[in-house]
């Protein structure tokens, strides 16, 4: 198995993500420069890590969304290839139309860097190693994380189980008090309708080694582990 | 043969009114109303992208700018609108 980790100018969570795969999960991953024309068909999954691609110029994620590598992602997403966008990677996925919605400046106009509780809302490719309705901890670190979709689209996301994580308290209450950035319906992560493309603002790669976590949390690794376990099942079929 | 000139095109990218505009809200609440400019009822912050466009006339320049706006998503139509203004 080999996971492709795509690097854009300004990506800065690539090495952390690489280490999680190669050193904690013992799954081979490869750092791939976005302009290299690498055939991504040869990889089992693709990660767009966090950072500040193109310095967030024009709008977070928009310039990277026009990189040729995104055309490959669009084709591969239709074939069911697992794709995760984390933080800026999520912003790139919404700007490229691979995921619905938009990510706006946080409602308090501040860059927010803190650990949050998240409620696992859906059992899918990326969450199946968690028990349903689990509360997990991961850090967020972003300026543009206020997820927005129209009311109609929100209902569609609910119906299709595309809302993957919601900001909550440690008891799973998803009220505005537990909403760090003003996201509609406390949404922290969504998937496409087929469930193989995931965008999430929290950083699972920063919560994958309990030694490095102030709360001894390694909940983040569950996202990657779920994907790897699902892939192993898919590859056997 | 038609002469080509340069036109200054401003793309005014404004948030849609149904969306909260936190920067505008702060200016209204914490600057204007706090200082008793209570005849202002709403503030919204937009962005201007200025292009110098080579075209045959102003209308041509505006429509060329609009093509870029839509094809390369200089604005996000889900959350904002774009108004094109131009001068020679």
What name goes with the CATH superfamily of chain B? Answer: Phosphoribosylformylglycinamidine synthase subunit PurS
Poorly predicted spans of chain B: none
Q: If you consult CATH, what is the topology of chain A?
A: Rossmann fold
The percent of residues in helical segments of chain A reads 10-25%
Global morphology of chain B: elongated
CATH topology of chain B, by name, is Mth169, Chain: A
How does CATH name the architecture of chain B? 2-Layer Sandwich
Describe the secondary structure blueprint for this structure.
The complex is a heterodimer of chains A (237) and B (88).
Chain A: E1 2-7, H1 14-24, E2 28-33, E3 45-48, H2 68-78, E4 83-86, H3 88-95, E5 102-104, E6 112-120, E7 135-142, E8 146-148, H4 151-159, E9 163-168, E10 187-191, E11 197-200, H5 221-236
Parallel strand pairs in A: 1-2, 1-3, 3-4, 4-11
Antiparallel strand pairs in A: 5-8, 6-7, 6-9, 9-10, 10-11
Chain B: E1 5-15, H1 22-33, E2 47-55, H2 58-71, E3 80-87
Antiparallel strand pairs in B: 1-2, 1-3
Describe this structure in words.
The complex is a heterodimer of chains A (237) and B (88). With 237 residues, chain A is an alpha/beta fold. Chain A has one domain (2-236): Class I glutamine amidotransferase (GATase) domain (Rossmann fold), CATH 3.40.50. Chain A is 23% helix and 24% strand. Chain A has 5 helices and 11 strands. Chain A has helices at 14-24, 68-78, 88-95, 151-159, 221-236, and strands at 2-7, 28-33, 45-48, 83-86, 102-104, 112-120, 135-142, 146-148, 163-168, 187-191, 197-200. A 9-stranded mixed sheet of chain A has the order 2-1-3-4-11-10-9-6-7, sandwiched between helices. Chain A is globular. With 88 residues, chain B is of the alpha+beta class. Chain B has a single domain (5-87), classed as 2-Layer Sandwich (Mth169, Chain: A), CATH 3.30.1280.10. Helix content of chain B is 30%, strand content 32%. The model of chain B has no long low-confidence stretch (mean pLDDT 92). Chain A binds chain B through residues 58-59, 62, 65-66, 95, 101-102, 104-109, 148-150, 182, and chain B through 19-20, 22-23, 26, 72-74, 76, 78-79.
């Amino acid at each position: 198995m080999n996971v492709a980790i795509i690097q854009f100018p300004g990506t800065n969570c690539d090495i952390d993500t690489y280490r999680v795969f190669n050193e904690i999960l013992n799954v081979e991953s490869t750092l791939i420069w976005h302009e290299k024309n690498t055939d991504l068909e040869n990889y089992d999954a693709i990660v767009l890590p966090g950072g500040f691609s193109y310095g967030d110029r024009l709008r977070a994620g928009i310039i990277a969304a026009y990189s040729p590598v995104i055309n490959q992602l669009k084709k591969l997403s239709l074939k069911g290839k697992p794709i995760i966008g984390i933080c800026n990677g999520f912003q790139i996925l919404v700007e490229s139309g691979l995921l619905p919605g938009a990510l706006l400046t946080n409602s308090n106009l501040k860059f927010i860097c803190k650990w949050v509780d998240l409620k696992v809302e859906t059992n899918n490719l990326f969450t199946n190693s968690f028990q349903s309705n689990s509360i997990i901890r991961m850090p967020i670190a972003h300026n543009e994380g206020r997820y927005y979709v129209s009311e109609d689209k929100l209902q569609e996301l609910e119906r299709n189980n595309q809302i993957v994580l919601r900001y909550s308290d440690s008891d799973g209450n998803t009220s505005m008090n537990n909403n760090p950035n003003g996201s509609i319906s406390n949404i922290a992560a969504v998937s496409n309708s087929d469930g193989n493309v995931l965008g999430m603002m929290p950083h699972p790669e920063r919560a994958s080694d309990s030694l490095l976590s102030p709360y001894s949390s390694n909940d983040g690794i569950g996202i990657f582990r779920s994907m790897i376990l699902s892939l192993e099942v898919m590859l056997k079929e | 043969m038609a002469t080509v000139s340069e036109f200054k095109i401003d793309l005014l990218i404004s948030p849609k009114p149904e969306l909260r505009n936190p920067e505008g809200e702060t200016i209204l609440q914490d600057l204007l109303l706090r200082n008793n400019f209570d005849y202002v009822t709403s503030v919204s912050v937009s962005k201007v992208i200025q292009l110098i466009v080579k075209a045959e006339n102003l209308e041509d320049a505006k429509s060329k700018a609009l093509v870029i706006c839509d094809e390369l998503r200089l604005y996000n139509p889900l959350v904002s609108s774009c108004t094109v203004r131009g001068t020679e």
